[in-house]
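During the no-cost extension, the postdoctoral fellow (Dr. R.K.) reprocessed legacy sequence entries with the updated structure-token encoder. One reprocessed record is reproduced below for audit purposes.
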Amino acid sequence: MKQLFQHAAITQGMTVRVAVNFLPEQSRVAAGKWFWVYHIRIENDSNEAAQLITRHWRITDGRGHVSFVDGEGVVGEQPRLEPGQAHDYVSGCPLGTPNGSMEGHYTMRRDDGSVFDVAIPFFPLAAPATAT
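Re-encoded structure tokens follow.
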């Protein structure tokens, strides 16, 4: 099944696309636990290679509580993207509310050692009404 990317951001020739889906089978609504899976594609549309070094997420739940997740790479990898290449990965986000949002940035390094941040677009986390 072809994934439909609903959100995108472009920074210095790097495009980050996001598709997000609520997973009822991983959620425990009666226990106040909701779970989403998100698929990210990072595309290098610039003419320089770059390596993803770190990630920074801002996750907000439905009560307005904000948490931050910082770490090296994405799902255990620090992909290097040559011009024209893309990297895909899938991860998940649990929340204690039926809605919230995520956004953030990746820190990338070019071959010349320069470092820059690439925006991860804001995307909502929303459980269907039947799952609340």
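The chain has one domain: 7-131. The CA atoms of residues 35 and 46 lie 34 Å apart. The remaining legacy entries will be reprocessed before the final report is submitted.
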